[in-house]
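User: I've been going back and forth on whether these two constructs are worth ordering. Before I decide, could you fold them both?

Assistant: Sure. I'll take them in the order you sent them. The first construct and its structure tokens:
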Amino acid sequence: MLYWQAYLRQSGEKELKTNDFGDAVNEAMFLSVAVQEAVFLPMLVLKVFLAFLFGMLLVGFGRKMVAWGQSRRGPPVFQPALDVFKLFSKQTLFPKSANLVFFVLSPVAVFASALVLVIVLPVFAGDAVSSDLDLLVIVFLLLMVVMFDAVAGFAGKSIFGAIGASRELTAFIAYEVPFIVSIFSVVVKVGSFDLGAISAWQASNGPLAMFLPFSALVFFLVLIAKLRKSPFDVGEAHQEIIAGAKTEYSGILLAFFEMADWLMTFFMAGLFLVVFAGALSDVFLLASMFAVVALVCLLDLSFARLRIDQFFRVSWTVLLALSLIGLLTAVF
């Protein structure tokens, strides 16, 4: 308004020329964008910080749950943070035969992909980053996490890393089709790839888990596989291949993998709740994340790990069949 008042006082004109009007509109748009950026950046930084914090707590809580199930006291809940701080202070060792470019790039790429996934998730500053194709972006970024995990295993030129990477890719081929079908069931039911639209639909109609129980079950089982927990822990079979694709990593590069694990735990638990549990407040959503992690750890304690051939068979028979039933439920 001050711009227009000053202009009218100086010109004395009652009608504005077209070019002056365009300049004023451009100035108003510039100010609007500046205000949005001033609000957006602090909210985004806060969102990332809270994702790191609660992701770390979720991983620590999971360790504590496993310790209780094994009649141990277990480490403190904040132990993952201490582990990462220690890794940052340690020397990073590079295998002599490793492909150094991909060896260094892979953990950074995994961490960056997990970070973007958390930014897309509609929690805390939920509407800050969103698009009409949220679920497609999420599927692509989850693919990047798996691919760079595998690249890390092959880049280290270790037999344990190579086997772990091969198993990661095999597991991905096994569970990804049922996972995509379960997501597509949600898209068919709601009519949108946008997570905000999915939450709004559930606010009006109720949780999607009530309408698509088979899709929700498949999504949860794939969540266990993506978090590498039993009975689907085929890529990091500690009894056989130590740490799988990450066996040769140490120091700051291993810290990137650990922090990516925090973010992936936070993201997968949050995505499951956002897609299938309805529009939840941030406080209730965080509490529900701990419940999801507790259930995952309970299953991890209760079941032995499947062999890779067993996992492949279960994925392409049971999980695929359940996901197709969920899709038919969404259509009809």
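The second construct, handled the same way:
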Amino acid sequence: MKSLMGSFFWRLGAFALAALALGGFDVKAASGLYDFNGYFQETHPFTVRNAPTPYGAPPQQYGAPPQQYGAPPQQYGAPPQQYGAPPQQYGAPPQQYGAPPQQYGDPSAQGWGGAPQYGASPVQAQAPGAPRFKFNDAPEAKPASEGWNGISEIRLGVLAHDEGPFSRRKEKGADVNLAILFNSPDFLGVIWSPRPQIGGNYSTSKDTSQAYLGIVWEWDFWENYFFGFGWGGAYHSGKTRTEERTRKELGCKFLFREDFDLGYKFNENHRLMLHFDHISNAKLCSTNEGLENIGIRYGYKF
């Protein structure tokens, strides 16, 4: 009997040890206070370090750096792919910023004084409607002065002779007037650039004729209207002293002369004006009757 009991307990112990070794049973108390299951499942301290464990081998749990964090060429990208090779990402200078001959202009194009011209390329500068930035090597010619051979305007008119109102009328008939106005020279700029003039009144009744020269100022108003004032001197063919009642006593041969014009400009060339002129000696001679003419004139401006 004793041997049978010993054999039974020996077999029971062997079976329990085998079950524990194979992990087929959980050792857990019903109350939960004496749960040794976790301790039985832990790796024995003397087992091989790299042997599989219930929690997984470190290379799989944490991941080998090349797989979990990614090898630098794959995770962060190789510099040529992620950041781009400089010729592709930032662009090669001739393509991104433009080659100087195209973007800034062809250096072979000549500008002022033969220096390289920067700006529009030859194609752009010569495109229809595009401004031309290219100039000839030689300086451009200075635009010619207004007028024709220095002549600014020619005026021709018919005037009523000796019509007052500042002197008594003695002479009669009509005058033919011709005047030539010239471009204003630079030195007259200090007095508002008047135009020099030379002209004459020819008396058709053989009374007092005159030749004159002077300067003329002119002002525009109301778009096409203008007002002119001329001042100068005149030499006349009339009488300085006379007893004839039909002739003027003008006192001196050389007299002061003033004229006034009020006109309308049809365009840049053609104009029509009312004209008035007066000659006298400003009482510098013994007699000073004076002479005035009034009429209409046509002007052609070059």
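Notes on the second construct follow. Strands lie at 151-160, 174-182, 195-203, 210-221, 225-236, 254-265, 270-280, 291-301. Confidence is low (pLDDT under 50) at residues 23-34, 53-57, 103-127, 133-144.
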